[in-house]
Amino acid sequence: DFLFFWGAVFLVTTTLVAFLKKENQELIPAKEETKGITDTYRLLFSIIKMPAVLTFCLLILTSKVGFSAADAVTGLKLVEEGVPKEHLALLAVPMVPLQIILPLIISKYTAGPQPLNTFYKAMPYRLLLGLEFAFLVWWAPKVKHEGGFPLYYYAVVVLSYALHQITLYSMYVAIMAFNAKVSDPLIGGTYMTLLNTVSNLGGNWPSTVALWLVDPLTVKECRGAQGHHTCATAAASEV
What we know:
The structure is a single chain. Helix content is about 75%, strand content about 0%. The chain is mostly helical. It has one domain (about 40-215).
C-alpha cells in the first residue's frame, strides 16, 4: 500500500509537470559542446589512467572492506536472533532527522583544503562499531525473554546505529567533497561521475562478498540427528 500510494503520487506529479510546465523561451542557453558515447568513454579511460586517479580508485575500492560484514549482516543476524523486523524498521525512523542534519554539520569540516582528513578520522571509529554490532548480536539471546526484548536493549541498538550514521556520513561527505574538489571543471560532470561510481562500487562489492561468505563461514551443528552432523552444506542442513 505504501509503495502503491507513492507510486501513484509520483506518476501524477511527473505527468502534471510534463503537461503544464513550459520551457522559458526568452533565455537561449549558450551552445554546449557535447561528446558522443565513444568520446566520453575515451575521456574516462584517459582520466582513470592518470597515476593519482588510479591510486585513489584502488584505495576507495578497498577502504570499506573492514566494515562491510558489520554493515551488511548485522540487521539480518539480529532478525535471526529474534528481533522483530517491524521493530528494526521503526528504529530507522529516529535516524531520518540525523541523516538530514549530519551532512550540514560535516560539510563545515570538509570545506577546507583537505576534506579527506574527516574520512581518515572517522574510519577507526567505524571499525570499532563493527565490534559493537557483533556484541549486539551476541547479546540479543542473552536479554531475550518471553515478551520480546527489553527497552534498554533497543536503546543501545538505536545509540549504536546513531553513532554508526555519524561515522558513515563523515566518510561519505568527505569523499564527495574530495571528488568535487579534484574534478576538472571543464569535464566536471564526467570526472565526478567516474569517481563517485568507483566510490559506490567500493562500498557495494565488499557487502556482496560478505553476504556470500556468511553461509560457508557459519559453523552449524544439527541437533536430534543420529550421529554427528556438522551441517556444513545446504544439503546437509536440509537433511
